């Protein structure tokens, strides 16, 4: 069995992750400007990508398992491309697999950083909203439940209280 299927799946995984990275960049911009409609659509697009990635990842695991079995190696619970690299016969296959794996890993790392940034920006936006709400809410000591006395900053008469 050759590694062609595994290479093809790795390439598709990289493409989907790059597309997911583009969505992450767009999410950053939507968060920055507060465009909730765009953000909602991007989240839906992201979910579709994640579902596709999940299917491809299952396919990759099956292909790796099949490759290892064909080599007479018992598969592990989490068959990885690293296992295939360890058990590949030719340098050409090792080179092709290594390049495809490294491209995918680089895209995954970039995606992780962008998602971390988006999470921080979202948290910052939430903190700003909470701060704004706290400023707009009346303080408990400013609320008059008895309707008999109004608490204010001062009971002393000022220039505006006197008659002109």
Automatic annotation (TrEMBL):
InterPro entries reported for this sequence: FlgN-like (IPR007809), FlgN-like_sf (IPR036679)
Record flagged with keyword Transcription: no
Descriptive protein name: Flagellar protein FlgN
Keywords: Bacterial flagellum biogenesis, Cell projection, Cilium, Flagellum
Gene3D superfamilies named in the record: FlgN-like
Bias type Basic and acidic residues, positions: 148-164
Region feature Disordered, mapped onto this chain: 142-164
Biological processes annotated in GO: bacterial-type flagellum assembly
């Amino acid at each position: 069995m050759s590694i062609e299927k595994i290479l093809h799946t790795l390439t598709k995984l990289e493409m989907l992750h790059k597309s997911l990275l583009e969505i992450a960049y767009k999410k950053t911009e939507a968060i920055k400007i507060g465009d909730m409609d765009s953000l909602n659509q991007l989240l839906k697009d992201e979910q579709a990508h994640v579902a596709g990635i999940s299917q491809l990842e299952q396919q990759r695991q099956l292909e790796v398992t099949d490759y290892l079995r064909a080599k007479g190696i018992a598969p592990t619970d989490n068959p990885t491309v690293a296992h295939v690299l360890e058990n590949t016969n030719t340098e050409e296959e090792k080179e092709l697999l290594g390049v495809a794996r490294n491209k995918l890993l680089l895209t995954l790392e970039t995606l992780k950083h962008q998602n971390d940034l988006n999470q921080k920006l979202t948290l910052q936006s939430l903190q700003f909203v909470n701060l704004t709400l706290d400023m707009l809410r009346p303080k408990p000591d400013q609320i008059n439940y008895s309707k008999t006395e109004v608490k204010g900053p001062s009971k002393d008469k000022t220039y505006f209280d006197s008659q002109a």
